[in-house]
Amino acid sequence: MSSSGDWAASEAARRRTFAVISHPDAGKSTLTEALALHAQAITEAGAVHGKAGRRGVASDWMEMEKARGISVTSAVLQFAHRGCVLNLLDTPGHADFSEDTYRVLAAVDCAVMLIDAAKGLEEQTRKLFDVCRHRGIPVITFVNKWDRPGREALELMDEIEREFRLKPTPVVWPIGDAGYLRGLIDVRQPGQMLRYTRAPGGAHKAVEAPVPGQRAVLEDEADWSKAVEELDLLRVDGAVHDQEAFLTGRATPVFFGAAISNIGVRLLLDAIVDLAPPPGPRELESGGARPVDAPFSGLVFKVQANMDPAHRDRIAFMRVCSGIFERGMTVTRAASGKPFATKYAHSVFGQDRSMVDIAYPGDVVGLVNATALRVGDTLYAEQAAVFPPMPTFAPEYFAVARPADLSRSKQFRRGIAQLDEEGVVQVLVSDLRGDQAPVLAAVGPMQFDVVTARMAGEFSSPVKLEMLPYHLARATDTAGAEALNRSRIVQGEALTRIRDKAQLALFPDRWQAGSFEREFPEARLDHLIAAH
Ligand code: G4P
Question: What pTM, to 2 d.p., does this model score?
Fold first, then answer.
């Protein structure tokens, strides 16, 4: 019998933990459903998607979720494909875009960048890609909606290369322009076309059939020749898949398809199995790394609080990083050195929670009653480990918070401090306003709704929020803070973060930040994205 280290390593080797990064409406939920349809779903954890009326909208823990029909909670979908276990972590988008969206990326080994063929790279995709790049997460690209008119394939390749300094290396190439899809070429089998036809009986899964190149030429010479020429051009330009370049974030293998008709989805799924990396050693704060066959360790990447207001419930989402997690085991919380009992570990989030008995590196476990756990926490057994702290992300929304009822200011301060510690929002102190009226900073506006709901419900201190007209934060130094005070052209504020004392300069937009920089070249303004 193999040791538990070998067991963990062999289970890790067949896991792929990934997220889809995209802009709203690119087709993330359609793709998720298509992937699950092709693969064999093991568990469907919570909501696949956060749109009302769609299948799988699971969480209605908070009233505001009900009101808006969106899910606050990241969902995890686990499915099997060709002997591998795939963990797909949802990255909340739309109005629920928040720091949690970014934090999910701390728990994945790969990302699928989903692009709308007609729109190319869009804002949220760019933001999420920046985080992937910063964290060294390899990215597979899927160009979606090729069944309807869109841009030229080569033009999209150019855009990726130019804007992301990322070499697109097509593994699959479309035959026919967007909107006139004849089939796909798998560049590893260049002599044939893959043709898709609707499945009989209205089933969703399109039937994929190989057609020899000679026949494809006869059927549609112009489209076939154009595709072959484009591929030649790309090959000459060095756009050939290189696993090393992909894993080190210099290149992205590219796929085309139409998630809605399941076109190209099987090829993407195969790529996740064949190209995406399995869980590997995880960097430790002290230097070095924790290999997957070491004793159990896990990283808490998200804490969802107050899911069940009656119980003050709190669930921590933990990714297993090394070893084997067994429900009931007592683990140590690195930050406090205190034991944490894992009696209530679940594999399913949302209302249909089900117990998880065992989990391996790459898997995500929901720990219920996790009041002691915080985002960024390391849990371990036997051999101590501490993973680097969760990065903070550049906030884009700012609001001054005040207690609605001044007689509750003690509860107000306690609540705000707690939410800050949990990472629900970032809490800043303004030199102008003092700590009686902290400035809350968020990546997405919905984080403020969570604050409002929890302050009223949990801390009995309703808050009044006054939105500030800033949308850009830069880290600055003393010279920068002084310049801000002197600046007449910019309505900026120098702020001091409570936790790490970094000075933040806030601007309404990047043009204002730009003119400030020109006026005060001595002031340092650093980007905050994923700053440690
Ligand atoms: P999201 O999660 O990224 O926000 O996107 P979602 O899957 O909800 O897809 C957004 C819209 O794009 C949906 O249309 C969906 O049907 C459509 N879509 C997704 N993939 C494809 C594709 O491959 N081809 C085409 N032509 N459309 C696609 P909708 O009208 O907004 O919603 P619905 O009424 O169809 O659900």
Answer: 0.87
